[in-house]
Amino acid sequence: MKMVLLGTGDAAGCPKMGCWCPACRDARKGGKSRRMRFSVLVHNEGKVALIDVSPDIRWQLI
Ligand SMILES: [Zn+2]
Known about the structure:
Elements: E1 2-6, H1 22-28, E2 39-44, E3 47-51, H2 57-61
Antiparallel strand pairs: 1-2, 2-3
Bound molecules: zinc ion (ZN).
């Protein structure tokens, strides 16, 4: 079995709407602070399952 973590952000991701802290400012500029919301992709014996799918899943799968 192989698990792939898609995104490493918290429930809101980064940048957060309306937040102007240094991390969110860096994320808006495309810096390393940009984090998508968390999803998990599981591969097992030729089958694939998505677990805890976040609203960012479209970008994570692209
Ligand atoms: Zn912030």
